Fold:
Amino acid sequence: MGLLEGKTALVTGGSIGIGLASAVRLAAEGAHVFITGRRRTELDAAVEMIGSAATAVTGDISSPADLDRLYETIRSRGRGLDVLFANASIAEFATLEQVTEEHFDRVFGINVRGMLFTVQKALPLLNDGASVILNGSTNADVGDDAFGVYAASKAATRSFSRTWANELKGRGIRVNTVTPGPTDTPGLTGLAAPEQVADFKSELAAQVPMGRLGRSEEIAAAVAFLASEQSSFMTGSSLYVDGGLNQI
Ligand SMILES: NC(=O)c1ccc[n+]([C@@H]2O[C@H](COP(=O)([O-])OP(=O)(O)OC[C@H]3O[C@@H](n4cnc5c(N)ncnc54)[C@H](OP(=O)(O)O)[C@@H]3O)[C@@H](O)[C@H]2O)c1
Structure:
């Protein structure tokens, strides 16, 4: 028996990276997993990998209409939602001097506004005892150069998990943040120019006490733990999966 037999889960940004690894893991634990993302080709490849335990719905979490369509699809399955992993986010570098209104609106529009309405619009579907997991970042705690807007968006994420844990505790719904350190994903790779990717990853790995980047599957293991009854006494928490980066 898996940890999530018979459960229904949603992973936003479930087509690649940490979201895909989490969708694979939640399905392996017995859940039916809805995945969403903006690009159809990546979603189709993910469904091919996961098989009949996955349903893909194309959409942008910063679009309320897309979220309504997503939740209508989940509603029509008739089982509600037991696990919501609000994972979809974007990351872009800009120093304080370089930040534009467009940069701010793009990052906050997806990472903060999009995450908020992802969870708000799920409320009628969430079954009592459901688990909501927000994807944070070790960047929320530190002041890395040129990552200020992204870091602030992740600090907002961490804050949301505290408030929502309080607001939803009466329904037995737990809300936690998973907090990854640098993890080898297409998103991380995309932060550097192609000819600089290897150096960029080596520099990041050198900062991690364990001396390497995380693997998406390692974040997914923490997501499965938070999704399941194994974490039944955790809410409002942040679970760091960071190779010791922000710990030692
Ligand atoms: N990788 C790291 O080092 C790291 C570290 C700490 C935290 N995190 C967090 O972990 C999460 C996943 O990161 P990742 O590295 O796996 O990213 P990734 O490889 O870039 O994957 C991001 C996923 O989110 C989807 N997505 C992005 N914007 C979306 C939108 N507006 N609507 C719907 N889907 C959207 C993408 O699909 P489409 O592009 O097709 O929409 C994709 O499926 C993020 O919250 C990130 O902040 C990552």
